[in-house]
């Protein structure tokens, strides 16, 4: 009995091997790159500018209301969570879309304030701009000579 590709086991895929990568080979690459929790990882690009850092974080399928940003002890914390509603009747045969919550944090320094960080969510990508803040220089300790 021939089944659609999503139901075939790995040995059966060998019958139709035309030299193209199979679905499980793509899964293995993803697993090697990101580990077994790849679906829960917020894939992020960080770019440095003269006066700021720009973060682009992939959050496909999330809504703006599902995302929470906070600043805790110099760490920018990004939390996202979603639940797929039980809108479909019947038994699920395959579920590949992510459901649950995830969190990631980046050290931005203790001098950065909440109002300094700019955030925009568009097309499943969270774009953050974090300014570079220089630590205030503490005057060098000078000793006074006693005569």
Question: What are the salient characteristics of this protein?
Answer:
disordered N terminus; 2 helices; Immunoglobulin-like; mainly beta; three-stranded antiparallel beta sheet; elongated; about 150 residues; four-stranded antiparallel beta sheet; 7 strands
What report would you give on this structure?
- By secondary structure, this protein is mainly beta.
- It folds into two domains: 36 residues, no CATH class; 81 residues, Immunoglobulin-like.
- Helix content is 11%, strand content 31%.
- The chain is built from two helices and seven strands, in the order H-H-E-E-E-E-E-E-E.
- It has a four-stranded antiparallel sheet with strand order 1-2-7-6, with no helix packed on it.
- The longest helix is centred in the N-terminal third of the chain and has 12 residues.
- The relative contact order is 0.16.
- The N terminus is likely disordered.
């Amino acid at each position: 009995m021939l089944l659609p590709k999503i139901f075939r086991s790995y040995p059966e895929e060998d019958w139709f091997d035309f030299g193209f990568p199979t679905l499980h080979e793509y899964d293995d690459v993803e697993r090697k790159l990101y580990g077994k929790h790849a679906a829960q990882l917020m894939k992020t690009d960080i770019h440095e500018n003269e006066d700021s850092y720009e973060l682009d974080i992939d959050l496909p399928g999330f809504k703006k209301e599902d995302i929470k940003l906070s600043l805790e002890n110099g760490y920018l914390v990004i939390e996202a969570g979603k639940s797929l509603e039980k809108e479909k009747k019947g038994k699920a045969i395959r579920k590949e879309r992510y459901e649950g919550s995830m969190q990631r944090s980046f050290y931005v320094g203790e001098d950065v304030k909440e109002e300094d960080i700019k955030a925009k969510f568009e097309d499943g990508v969270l774009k953050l701009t974090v300014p570079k803040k220089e630590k205030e220089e503490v005057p060098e300790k000078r000793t006074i000579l006693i005569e």
